Amino acid sequence: MPEILLHQYASSPFAEKIRVCLGIKRLAWGAVDEPVIMPKPELVALTGGYRRIPVMQIGADIYCDSQLIVRELERRYPEPTLFPAGDAGLIQATALWTDRVVFQAAVAIIFGGLGDKVPAAFIKDREALRGGAFDTAGMGAAVPHMMGQLRAHVALLCEQLADGRTFLTGERPGLADANAYYNLWFVRSAYPPAASTFEDLPHIGAWLERVRAIGHGTSAPVSRDEALRVAHGALPAAAAPSSDPLIGKPVSVGADDYGRDLVRGTLVGATEYQLSVLRQEKDLGDIVVHFPRIGFTLALA
Ligand SMILES: N[C@@H](CCC(=O)N[C@@H](CS)C(=O)NCC(=O)O)C(=O)O
To answer: Model confidence over 16-75: pLDDT tens digits?
Structure first.
């Protein structure tokens, strides 16, 4: 059984970001396939309520959100680094561009383009996730604008590649590539006609192919039940010492954008980057769920 379990599904763009990082690091991992829509009982048993994909599991430690998964992969498996040219802070900050602005353009282009072909159950699920309408007709009306937006974002990548470099920060691939790549992969795979929005821009086709060729490391399927057994048989790792006044207190943590379900437990770790919540889950024992600080709320429960 590989140490790293990634709760994911094949069509998930944020999971693709992580799969590329696993490829850069040439890691072996277990692919725990989750449903694309709720219910996700095994995932929610592990996270305590967080439902988004991807989630990384290492024993009884559960890492939510691709931002934190990247940080934890780099901490545990530093070589090959995701920051071959340095600039780790600045490059991690690009996630706020790709995961929010570029992602929303990709979503509008794909689902606006698919229109009536989007299954009703998917729409209902994503409305619950967003806490608002998932209006494919409205997205359809925004497609011309969003295509212009996406092209402008991709033009920035062209500018970066214009000196003939192989990857965005130099000759070796890194997080900058994974972040910039996954939304374009999403458009290409979910709604191929819209790839014409950016594929003719110079350098892009060859760069996309080079990132694709990195692969995803070595993965093997792991069932959701097996993942639960792994959590049951493991103890969470000790959290780094922290002087945060909420340590030891009951708290709730949730995403501040969408999929805001709160996870409740005892705060056992708090750094500038990370919040760690200890929970007792029936049949699984102690589990520590980790979140990034950026983009997540923390409150006394
Ligand atoms: N900020 C989160 C966003 C994750 C996200 O939006 N994931 C999508 C799938 S790619 C999702 O969870 N959709 C709802 C679902 O799958 O239940 C991250 O970086 O992991």
So the answer is: 999 999 999 999 999 999 999 999 999 999 999 999 999 999 999 999 999 999 999 999
- Which residues, in sequence order, are bridge partners of residue 33? 8
CA dihedral 189, 7, 80, 186 (to 10 degrees): 10
State how far the alpha carbon of 1 is from the alpha carbons of 17, 25, 28, 228, in Å.
23, 18, 10, 13
Query: Any long-range contacts for 191-195 (C-beta under 8 Å, 24+ apart)?
Result: 191/109, 191/110, 191/113, 191/114, 193/113, 194/109, 194/110, 194/113, 194/147
The residues, ordered by sequence, that sit 6+ positions from 204 with a Cβ below 8 Å of its Cβ are: 154, 157, 158, 161, 184, 198
| Residue position matching structure tokens 């991992």 | 29
Rounded CA separation 192/300 (Å): 46
Residue 34 CA: nearest ligand 1 atom is 16
Q: Is 221 helix (H, G, I), strand (E, B) or coil?
A: strand
Which pLDDT score is estimated for 133?
Answer: 97
Identify the residue whose tokens are 């980057």. 273
Query: What confidence score (pLDDT) does residue 160 get?
Result: 98
Ligand 1 centroid to 140 CA: how many Å? 22
**Pairing, β 28-33 against β 218-221:** parallel
Q: Is the whole model's pTM more than 0.90, yes or no? A: yes
- Residue bearing tokens 């929010």: 100
Q: Which residues line ligand 1 (CB under 6 A)?
A: 12-14, 36, 51-54, 65-67, 99, 129
Å from CA of 65 to ligand 1 middle: 8
Q: Domains in the chain and their CATH numbers?
A: 4-80+220-300 (3.40.30.110), 89-213 (1.20.1050.10)
Note every long-range contact of 115-118, with CB atoms under 8 Å and residues 24 or more positions apart, other chains counting: 115/140
CA of 52 to the centre of ligand 1 (A): 4
